[in-house]
Amino acid sequence: MANIKSAIKRNKQNEKRRVLNRVYRGRARTFVSKARNVIEKEESKEVVMASVVEAVKALDLAAQKGVIHKNNAARRKSRLMKRLANLQSEEK
Fold this sequence. Notes:
Blueprint: H1 5-41, H2 45-65, H3 70-91
């Protein structure tokens, strides 16, 4: 454990941020995995689009808060959209 006052304060701040960041990161992961599952199960078009939109929102929010890097969010959204496009091309 830190003995210096500034180090103790820094540890408290880091712990607070870690807990908050965990919420946003967890939400993003959850919504992305739900969207992937819905895409793989080939649910109705409305359900798929709704889940993808939720996942994109969660990723954007996590990137905006600085929890994940903006390029990381963009990459994950791109992969999700790629899966969605493959599903839509198979329907035709």
